[in-house]
DNA sequence: TCGAACCATCACATCGATGTGAAGGTCAAG
DNA sequence: CTTGACCTTCACATCGATGTGATGGTTCGA
């Protein structure tokens, strides 16, 4: 598919698809006329990238962890340098911290909403 | 305490403490000489703000959800406008989505690391 | 063949979070 | 009284993600 369809299916501006490519997050084939061409799995790939970006990870980190998320993973083992491993460990821990922080605060917001809505329902009866 | 101590204890640049105040995320008393003065709980408050920022929430959202996270919460019920409630519901759902995305990818990274380290340990023996 | 709807690259603008430095006030210790 | 370590405000710079528009090529249907 071309960039327009990918854009619609991932609800992502064309501009950003080109930007992600520039950052090495996604790749594209090129037709003879120079148009970008994407295969089907690219839809999920883009959605994953967007999710990670929305979760607060910068592109340069996403670029590093994406190769670990492909299957089969075995083929990626050889190129795991010690430096990259420690980067991943650090980022894994940072993600865990984020998850904890987000979960705590999400629960707090949720509890607040439950309380408010319960009161409101009781009040309008 | 003054801004320098708060900065050290929260590992946050003074510049950002002033910025958070400007954005309405934290408040400060003023000494007679104009210096900002913070009370003890502000340390946790700042850490919470930083956590939320790091988790990808923008200051304007943090500003909205922070009042819900204070205790006792009861006193905040009256000022819960319908519009604010729907904002909170939206944000709660967005946080849940983020948590899911982060968790999936954190687990994937984690599994990858486990596999790599297991192989490495096996190999060096 | 012409116009609409794609696509390309490039450049500049914006926005939020953050860095940095200037210019100056306050205060305690030497 | 001066020096140094704080503090103030203000402004401009940077950085990553994103918006927007200019300029021009390709394809397809009326």
UniProtKB/TrEMBL annotation, chains A, B:
SUPFAM superfamilies assigned to the protein according to its UniProt record, in alphabetical order: Putative DNA-binding domain
Q: Which Pfam families match?
A: MerR_1
Domain HTH merR-type residue range list = 1-68
Q: Which UniProt keywords apply?
A: DNA-binding
* UniProt superkingdom: Bacteria
Q: Which InterPro entries match?
A: DNA-bd_dom_put_sf, MerR-type_HTH_dom, MerR_fam
The entry's protein name is MerR family transcriptional regulator
Q: What is the lineage of its organism?
A: Bacteria, Bacillati, Actinomycetota, Actinomycetes, Propionibacteriales
């Amino acid at each position: 598919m071309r960039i327009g369809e990918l854009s619609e299916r991932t609800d992502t501006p064309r501009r950003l698809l080109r930007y992600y490519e520039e950052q090495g997050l996604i790749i594209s084939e090129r037709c003879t006329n120079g148009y970008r061409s994407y295969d089907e799995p690219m839809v999920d790939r883009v959605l994953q990238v967007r999710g990670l970006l929305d979760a607060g990870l910068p592109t340069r980190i996403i670029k590093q962890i994406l190769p670990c998320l492909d299957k089969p993973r075995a083929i990626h083992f050889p190129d795991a340098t010690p430096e990259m491993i420690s980067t991943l460990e650090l980022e894994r821990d940072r993600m865990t911290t984020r998850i904890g922080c987000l979960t705590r605060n999400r629960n707090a917001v949720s509890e607040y909403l439950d309380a408010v809505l319960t009161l409101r329902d009781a009040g309008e009866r």
